[in-house]
Amino acid sequence: MAFELDPSETPESMQNKIEETRERIRSEYDPESSGRYQPVDVQRLWEDDGFVASYLEAKRHVVADTVKIIDESLQWRNEFSVNDIAEDNLQKSFLEAGMHYFRGYDKDGNKLFWFRLKLQAKDSRTLQEKKRYLAFWLERFVRHEPGALLTTVFDMSESGLGNVDMEFLRFLITCFQVYYPRLLAKILIFELPWIMNAAWKIVKSWLGPDAIDKLKFVTRHDVQTYIELEQLPLHMGGMDVFEYSYPPLPEDDFHSPLSESGQGEAGVKETADPEPRLRKEGDVDSRARPPRRPTTTTTTITGSLLRFSPGRELCFGQSMDDRRCVILLENIPKNPVAYKVRTTAPDNYRVKPSSGVLDPGSSVEIMVSLHGGSQASPQDRFLVMAAEMEKAVAGENQDLAQFWKDIPKTKVMEHRLQCKVLQGVKPAHIQTTNPHADLTNGTGGQQDTHTMLLKLLAGSRRLEQKLDHCLWTENVLIVMVTLLTAILSCCLYTQHTGLGLF
Q1: Across residues 79-108, what is the average pLDDT?
Q2: pLDDT, tens digit, for every residue of 22-52?
Q3: Distance from the first to the final alpha carbon of the chain
Q4: What is the pTM of this model?
Q5: How far is CA 47 from CA 172, 183, 403, 410, 486, in A?
Q6: How far apart are CA 337 and CA 101, in angstroms?
Q7: N or C end: fewer C-beta atoms under 10 angstroms in the chain?
Q8: How crowded is residue 286: how many other Cβ atoms within 10 Å of its Cβ?
Q9: At residue 465, does pLDDT exceed 90?
Q10: Alpha-carbon distance 135 to 81, whole Å?
């Protein structure tokens, strides 16, 4: 698990605090023989520096407070049997309803964790199972994407007070504050109904200062500040036509670190050469001819070890030139850096070179091409892994496979790229029949047409919703006017009758 250092902390002081935390837990709680924690969590406590560091950061690097929160967290994991929660022992009705799921990323690259509040009902009989259901999702995320952050989106549309379970919300907050610290990037509350303001004021009082800073209330008009249109569902004014269904679980494409077999836990496989080796000076792949780059805005992202271009997505089209993309990697440190590229669809793509070593200040162009008649999909993902090497190690005749087996996970940097389809299958409900469409612009023109159609569809849905709201308002006003007319008529009649008696 990767962790960031506080500006006031040096790597040496941080490592000292990690060891001090472990020693105090060992002396105060005797984890090995007390039965207080599960063995797998004890092993993680001793071996995973990032695991301990996440608690230290949550407690401002105060060791005494960190020891207490780790003890509370590991006791909960033991009592709740968190390591044993799996898809096959959860209540299937929760999975089928889709109260929670992962899908897409926010503008900062954090995974989106969706809460559909309208599907949740307060019921003390199912509270424990709902907690297990939430723990399943959080545990699944931290196992598959260690060190990554979550942006939690509370979709409050079409919900009411009957959907607010305060006890469950308190458990959620405890998860982010104690059981899974340093996991939360932001909490987005979408379209909070005014009737729930009082309930959310109570929830807000449970949050610490850090969490309150991460809490954002958004509407259709400003949610795009945090999430791109393509990642937003239609009812939020976006262009994502995804509809939840189970099975299988949605967004099941996590990028896990290498396992002993060289394959990730969630089916993220390598596209490495049969015999990966250290690149020797002067080696050139004559087949790696730079392809034409798609006409799209290229972003560059600088990580701790490598500079990536493009930084967020690879764009594929239908033409021969657009079936290939280039990833440019540049070495930043003064030491050599080993790299490797993996994908969730290894049968569809060829990556050359898929692994190697970059000398200080050098760069490499990696060609990613669609294989045979394969088609790109927006669900495909690419993972670039990088680890710094000692100069002496890099100079030895050592194969990369052994290097990746020996390197600790805490020293591996991971960067993810999404796949963007420039020209391909349109959503089933969109039919393009415009005879005046300009098809001479190639991939870029068709991409703009598809985007325009999706935006028109989203705008049409927004107009329908506004029209429905106007009609509802009109009906309410008609009822109120009728009521007021009836009351006024009664008053006049009473007054007239009363005057007639005298």
Answers
A1: 88
A2: 999 999 988 888 888 999 999 989 988 888 9
A3: 91
A4: 0.52
A5: 27, 20, 19, 10, 77
A6: 36
A7: C
A8: 5
A9: no
A10: 10
